[in-house]
Design goal:
By secondary structure, the protein is of the alpha+beta class. About 25% of the residues lie in helices and about 25% in strands. The longest helix has 26 residues. This is SagB/ThcOx family dehydrogenase. GO terms for molecular function: oxidoreductase activity.
Length: about 210
């Protein structure tokens, strides 16, 4: 059965190439124990797109703001650096998740899903998340610490995505098999930004 907002048009433009996310974050329909039982990696995806409602909830669970006071997030961050940015590769382009404005900010108008990994399923899956560490937000730490904390924080976020997908009947898998230099160039990343991991999300292949 569809959730209340899933009959809306999948992606609504609010400004040229910007995508407004849905602020109505309703509870998951499954207990934590059942979610943990259902959590798994999948590598077979339908090409069916996610609604803006489901995509909004996915990103909020991943690393959204969950407390009205301040800007505290759904995943912990070492020294509260909040150095991880989530880039979202869709058929309509590449975006960066802005949890404060609840929008997907445009980065590229091109469909770069197939560039986010070497696996054969990434180009057809509806959503590929790219976790990018902005190391300049961690300037007080050594380079070794920066890489460690970035990997640790990405793990927290990607697990949130796994749990959401388990509760919502979606398929997901994290992927380290990525040509990071080529993808960083394609995305226009700066020298202080480092791709940590990618994660594919979609409906299971029928």
């Amino acid at each position: 059965m569809n959730k209340p907002h899933e009959t809306q048009a999948p992606l609504q433009l609010i400004a040229p190439s910007s995508l407004e996310l849905d602020a109505d974050i309703t509870p998951l329909s499954m207990s934590l124990m059942e979610v943990l039982r259902q959590r798994k990696s999948s590598r077979e995806f339908s090409t069916r797109p996610l609604s803006i409602y489901k995509l909004s909830r996915l990103l909020w669970c991943a690393f959204g703001i969950n407390r009205e006071e301040g800007s505290h997030r759904t995943a912990p961050s070492a020294k509260d650096a909040q150095e991880i940015d989530i880039y979202v590769a869709l058929a309509s382009g590449l975006y960066r998740f802005d949890p404060h404005q609840l929008v997907l900010a445009p980065v590229l108008a091109d469909d770069i899903r197939a560039d986010t990994g070497w696996q054969d399923f990434v180009g057809g899956a509806p959503v590929n998340l790219i976790y990018v560490a902005n190391l300049e937000r961690m300037s007080a730490a050594s380079r070794v610490e920066q890489k460690f904390y970035a990997a640790l924080d990405t793990g927290f976020i990607s697990q949130n995505v796994y749990l959401f997908c388990a509760a919502e009947g979606l398929a997901t898998v994290t992927r380290g098999w990525v040509d990071r230099p080529a993808l960083a160039k394609r995305m226009g990343l700066g020298p202080g930004q480092r791709i940590v991991l990618a994660q594919t999300v979609g409906y299971p292949r029928e």
